[in-house]
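Our consortium's second objective concerns turning raw sequence data into structural hypotheses that experimental partners can test. To show how far this objective has progressed, the report includes one record in full. It was chosen at random from the queue rather than selected for favorable results. The single chain below, 490 residues long, was entered without modification.
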Amino acid sequence: MSTPVSTNPVSGFDRWFSLSARGSTYSREIRGGFVTFFTMAYIVVLNPLIIGTAKDVNGMFIGNTDDVVKSITMVAAATALVAGLLTMLMGAIGRFPMAVAAGLGLNGFVAFTLAPQMTWADAMGLVVIEGVLILLLVLTGFRSAVFTAVPEQLKYAIGVGIGLFITVIGLVDAGIVRPGVPLISFGSFGQLAGWPMFVFIFGLLLTIVLVARKTRGAILIGILATTVLAVIVEIVAGVGPRIGADGSVANELGWSLNVPAVPESVISSPDLGLLGQFNLLGSFEAIGVIAAILAIFSLMLSDFFDTMGTAFGLATEADLLEEDGTIPHFESILVVDSLSAIAGGVSSTSSNTSYIESASGIGEGARTGIASLVTGALFLIAMFFSPLVTIIPHEAATPALVVVGFLMMTQIRHIDFTDYEIGIPAFLIIAIMPFTYSITNGIGAGFVAFVVIKLFLGKAREVNWLMWVVSIAFMVYFLINPIEQVLGLK
């Protein structure tokens, strides 16, 4: 918990962002904004590799081009632009230290499930429709009402689950844990090997020590110092990338995404040709009304709960919850999140959503929307200096996620696991989030389990009616494939 440095705001800017009221300082917010950017800047590289390399029903890359390099370039520029603008909007209006960018998982669904059945413009039209519907649910108060209906201990379980989730993300992105056979392997060939692994372990130990010593700027120092080491290692050892140009594993012991080499050029001109390339209703003609509605429902349910869960987890970690357990400016946060989904479709970057990596900035001291202004500005700069973004490898940024994962896991103390009626649903939320790589799946499993347990214990009246509505929606979500088969859509 931060110690307030002042009780009286000194300016209108301070008052708007509650800087002094939340016990923060400009230096903390700036550091936090930088850390959040560094831990999620990978999206400028990764989203183009997902959206930019998939083909639509006509065999064309996004932007209606057959040039994959041009496609990737356009997606990278649009990804940085939208992330920058919407993150700054989240800071200015939501006044919350949470960054926004193209949603992982959602972009894969758009690229590999929707686009092959229609044109890219049709697929992005579905994303726009989903965002508009989510915005209507926010404006009617339904989205925040659902959040209020969730039992408090399940909310804490969401925060704990997110902590474990980002820890797994950090370990997987660094290559220390890899999916495969067996289900999860430890490093390469069952052991820790290779220079990138050494860099990650160095960064993790350095960050742990700095955090334990309560060093100012601990996480940022860890990222920067580890990046410098990574660049030196690459210069000396010439490690190279793990994945080759053809998408196959070229070097098992290589860098997982970015190769930390000093770029030949620093500035590049952004190609914003993807802006506005969406067809609002084309998908209904391409795959039929029912299939289009089910696709929108799948997108909506994921967007609906991801940000609510993320915002609560971040607010709890930052000690920003009001006395009644609500999040400050929650409605404004949800409005910006809904606009982010719309903007993602309009810009052809896929639905944009809040990022749990924002926890790294909170771990560095961020408590206000000022940090998001900083993160957003860095994304806008990244449009022109994208080569600099690629210097930081996953192995240098991911130690921050592991450490912040620990900090968020401490919220588990609020959950009474001796009460099985709440303990089992809480456990499912915590366990399923990281194992399925989905905040939505974890929340859904926990909510359904909570309702089912109450029902068969004869305590159905204890469940808020909105929890029933949401749980039934989750059941439909989990059964979407068999439903499509029954309706002849598969």
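The partners drew two points from this record. The chain has one domain: 12-268+286-484. The chain has a mean pLDDT of 85. Both points have been shared with the crystallography group to help prioritize constructs.
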